[in-house]
Amino acid sequence: MSDEIIFQKKNGLGLITLNRPKALNALSYPMILSMHKALKDWEKDPEVLAVLVRGEGEKAFCAGGDIRGIYESITSGSDEHTRFFQDEYILNEYIYNYQKPYIALMNGYVMGGGMGISQGASFRVLTERSKISMPEVAIGFFPDVGGSHFLSKCPGSLGDYLALTGVTLNGEDALYANLGDWILASDQINAFLEQLEGLSASAPVADQVRKVLLGLGARNTPINPPLEERRQLIDAIFSLSSVTDVISGLDRVAVDGPAWVGETALLMKQRSPIAMVGAHETIRRGKHLTISECFAMELALGARWIEVGDFVEGIRALIIDKDNSPKWAYTLPELTEQKIRSLFPSLSKI
């Protein structure tokens, strides 16, 4: 385990390093368990004033859960994937309620499970290298790890847009979409880590972290985020009541609208229909649920999803065989409200 994830105490800073750079620091099941244990230990440790989690290397903070491992568990008849999701969500929810400043250094790729261990942070620190996404619909799944909570808190309909397309945001756009709190130049990362080792127990620690960020030129407001130019159309189209309506709306605007609209429509037509419907429904419900209720909904939905959803086929086509030709189980017209209720009875109870 010491190879995959490294824990250090450095002058008041608890430092967690995800150490699988060749796998873009994807989370394995043992990493999730050991990270949760370390956080619990450090929460009670007076020598630890703040915690920072980072990814080894410059490419990625964390590209998500170990999808290949989950696929092997499902197809072999093991139950490790069930325990993986359950314990991952427990860790994710725990981070939201952590009693000490928890800093996620979101440099490079931050996808799926990487969002799960960063969105509950008290300091979500982006850089100009950040590449933020919830790409689950591309592999036939729905945005989980608390996505029904944090995507539903994005301004306007940006959360629906991100969930239904799986598109990647840069640092400025992620700040604009409320998926980060600060943007720090990547060449200041080492200075940031060094200065966090100078925290004092004699003053509020969060205020000290804020002062360090400001002193290094970090910003909490975006500069010219590209997403802002698209916002009006995104809000108008992605607020529509169904996935079918959203795609139809994109097709109408694409006739004489900007190029990205047609590209988005084409992208959505390639995604798993049931995954998009699931994403749309969970984001809609998440607006009215607590964090705990969001995780409970995602856990119940995920367990059923593996039986009737497109997850296994999506992983096969994009990760295992890499033929990029998934055979999705349903078309959008087949996914009536009644059909969704019969496939996922837990949704009708929420």
From TrEMBL:
- The broad enzyme category this protein falls into is hydrolase
UniProt entry keywords in alphabetical sequence: Hydrolase
Cited Gene3D superfamilies: 2-enoyl-CoA Hydratase, Chain A, domain 1
| InterPro entries registered for this protein in UniProt | ClpP/crotonase-like_dom_sf, ECH_dom, HIBYL-CoA-H
Name the chemical reaction catalysed here: 3-hydroxy-2-methylpropanoyl-CoA + H2O = 3-hydroxy-2-methylpropanoate + CoA + H(+)
Query: Which EC numbers does the record give?
Result: 3.1.2.4
Q: Where is the Enoyl-CoA hydratase/isomerase domain?
A: 14-344
Q: Pfam families this protein is in? A: ECH_2
Q: Which GO terms describe its molecular function?
A: 3-hydroxyisobutyryl-CoA hydrolase activity
Query: Which GO biological process entries does UniProt record here?
Result: L-valine catabolic process
Q: What is this protein called?
A: 3-hydroxyisobutyryl-CoA hydrolase
Q: What is the lineage of its organism?
A: Bacteria, Pseudomonadati, Pseudomonadota, Betaproteobacteria, Burkholderiales
